[in-house]
Amino acid sequence: MQTQNTIKRLHTALTTTTVLALGIAVASAHPGHAANAEPVSHLATSPYHLLTLTVVGAGMLLGTVFVKRLAARRAMQITGVAALAGAAVTFASQLML
Q1: Could you tell me the pTM of the whole model?
Q2: DSSP, residue by residue, 29-46
Q3: Coil, strand or helix: which one is 4?
Q4: 3-state SS of 14-82?
Q5: Distance CA 60, CA 84 (A)
Q6: 27 SS3 class
Q7: Residues 6+ apart with CB under 8 A from 68
Q8: pLDDT tens digits, the chain, 97 residues: what are they?
């Protein structure tokens, strides 16, 4: 039983690490401006930031598996869901254009 839990946690750790490592490759959504050079509305309306929001949200949700404190885990879950919701809104708004 304990071996099965260890394998499951190892698999989750590997998945989380892979998602976050791949996210590093796309973390700079596009060249041309610093992180604080554009308003927040640019993040929500730019299709280039869609993948970044998705990776950050998924990484936060997967990372909650390793957090033991409830308050920190809930904060990560809320942030992850908010990032994924932002990505979904961005995707939907781009489809409407």
Answers
A1: 0.61
A2: -SSSS-TTSS-HHHHHH-
A3: helix
A4: HHHHHHHHHHHHHCCCCCCCCCCCCCHHHHHHCHHHHHHHHHHHHHHHHHHHHCCCHHHHHHHHHHHHH
A5: 10
A6: coil
A7: none
A8: 677 777 887 787 777 777 766 666 656 556 666 667 777 777 666 767 777 788 888 888 888 888 888 888 899 899 899 988 888 888 887 777 6
